[in-house]
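## tool: complex_structure
## caller: assistant
## args:
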Amino acid sequence: MKWTNTVVPTLRDNPQEAEIPSHQLMLRAGLLRKLAGGLYTFMPLGFKALRKVEQIVREEMDAAGALEVLMPALQPKEIWEQSGRYEKMSKAMYSVIDRQGREMELGPTHEEVITDLVSREISSYKQMPVTFYQIQTKFRDEIRPRFGLMRAKEFIMKDAYSFDASWDEADSSYQKMYDAYIRIFERCGLVVKPVEADAGDMGGNWSHEFMVLADSGEDGIVECSACSYAANSERATFKYVEAKQYDDAEKNLEEVHTPAAKTIKEVAEFLKCEERRLIKTLIYTADDKPVAVLLPGDREINETKLGHLLDANEFKLADDASVETVTGAAVGFAGPIGLDVPIYADVSLKGVAGAYTGANKTDYHYSNVNLERDANVEKYEDLCLATSGDSCPECGAALNECRGIEVGHVFKLGDKYCKSFNAKFLDQNGKEQVITMGCYGIGVTRTLQAIIEQSHDENGIIWPMSVAPYVVDIVVVNPKHEESMTLALQLEKQLEADGIDTIVDDRKDRAGVKFKDADLLGFPIRVVIGQRSLDNGNVELKIRNQEDSKLIEVDKILLKLKEIYRS
RNA sequence: CGGGGUAUAGCGCAGUCUGGUAGCGCGCUUCGUUCGGGACGAAGAGGUCGCAGGUUCGAAUCCUGCUACCCCGACCA
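## result:
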């Protein structure tokens, strides 16, 4: 492809709308243009790279035995009611009303459609295991689209669904997908970390996320410094430090005057004790009913874990007014003692004594709190956010925190969807059973941007060979020089014949402009054809992620390029 | 939805405080000189100053309302 025959609108300055490197680079390199928030057009080179990522995904899914299908993006509302997810998901779905007045949803995901299909088509153990997948545009009415392709309202996803006759077989389908994911991301040139994850609204009881480590990542990850344990912060657990008896457990409760000391820090300073000795009391409203949640004073709440415990459609930290109504005191003096709402406490508080907590009375706290004696705790549950320095639940070594971009997610769903769609089969004994399901997603467009986020320098993108829009960039220093152009076009033809995507920079600009754009676009291999070196029978070869360039004889360059491409 | 910010030419910005009819750099067009790491000169094209009201002889600038975009949180591939 000649540069002058395609459209590569590079920008010299970073657009003000982009914050993170990959988003800035996609815009600057002319790979992407915005239509509106969360909606982007792929420009010719961006689209080429996207297609390559898709193709890698497709090849590995095929190799894993998955069958490619294409499901409708437009889905009747009824199937969402049938799965019981309509209420939870409707906020995130774009709905349209057709001329019959029927409500249709633009698919945010396809568990319902595929399970409906499978319930009709699969009826025997002989038809399983089977895994279907598709690569398709998904629509989600995101609360806040962000960072270009990272969180968009419309994005391309590879979604796969496995169906098995038993849990054991489902495990092996899950493992196959897991392994395929590892290969896919490796082929994309990504360093990816699989982490244990929460299943969220998808349901099921076991899942892994594939994380691209990056400071700009939206997810928190906790990983062990010694063993292989790694988990999304939402799910991460850690070894609890035993609850302490700070003082004689039998001492009587006592009110302590703590004027104007509201925050944990202020109270701890006032009482001259460590923050951990305070019992933090958070008031939440779950489906409009108040509940109290107790944590050690030095800990943060893990709202995902709390959500599982409360099992409510909606819950949030109560506003100041509700807190005051519930506790009868100003915000900052809430405590579990005498509180007439359900009380849940973190497991590490079981058996605590000699602690402090709010007295539900403005400017007062209690001392000598023996939680089990003094408060009516409904349940002790793991509710804390794991953090750096906590002990690994597997091996006890210190945990570290980092951030990641979720590019893939695999779930074991069990019978969640198959049950509601009545997807059953007859086993060897002629007995009817519910099919066991798994689902597996890769954010294809997000993966593309994650590649850039992980592989760039101050001059631009550094594409891995496998997904570069063009592998070789032939820079013709002076396109009016006939010998240079002839050689460039001949080389292009030979490379293309070998399946090596090549672009010839035939613009009339000065060499510096073309070099800058070559770096910005991040083509893995650059060949410079200039009159000067050509007179000595040479062209220049430069690898994007290496410092130096070298001169290669004209008649050896083709072989050399093929060799580099294959390595 | 809550909190913060921004909106002036394709991109990056100044001008707004103190009202007087819009400017800079890059990019774009034409010509000339240049030509291996974002050249130089000359001549051009391009803007309802986000939108709608209001104040004023006069509004990019002051007032009111709205919208879009970006960042922080809940949602997620």
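## assistant note: Residues 173 and 417 of chain A are 17 Å apart (CA to CA). Chain A has three domains: 16-71+107-225+401-452, 254-381, 470-566. Handing back to user.
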